Automatic annotation (TrEMBL):
Membrane-spanning ranges: 20-38
Protein name as catalogued: Oxaloacetate decarboxylase, gamma chain
Keywords: Membrane, Transmembrane, Transmembrane helix
Length: 46
């Protein structure tokens, strides 16, 4: 089964990729912020 990249399929694929990357970056950024806040609140825990 071959996937044909047509003019209609490409924007949809790009949109899915952007949403996926955005979700990943949002999760990573949230984890990063949480770790920074924990280090500020509990500096003795390292």
């Amino acid at each position: 089964m071959e996937i044909q990249f047509t003019a209609e399929l490409l924007p949809q694929a790009l949109g899915v990729m952007v949403k996926g990357m955005g979700g990943i970056f949002a999760v990573l950024f949230t984890i990063y912020l949480a770790s920074v806040l924990l280090q500020k609140l509990f500096p003795e825990m390292k």
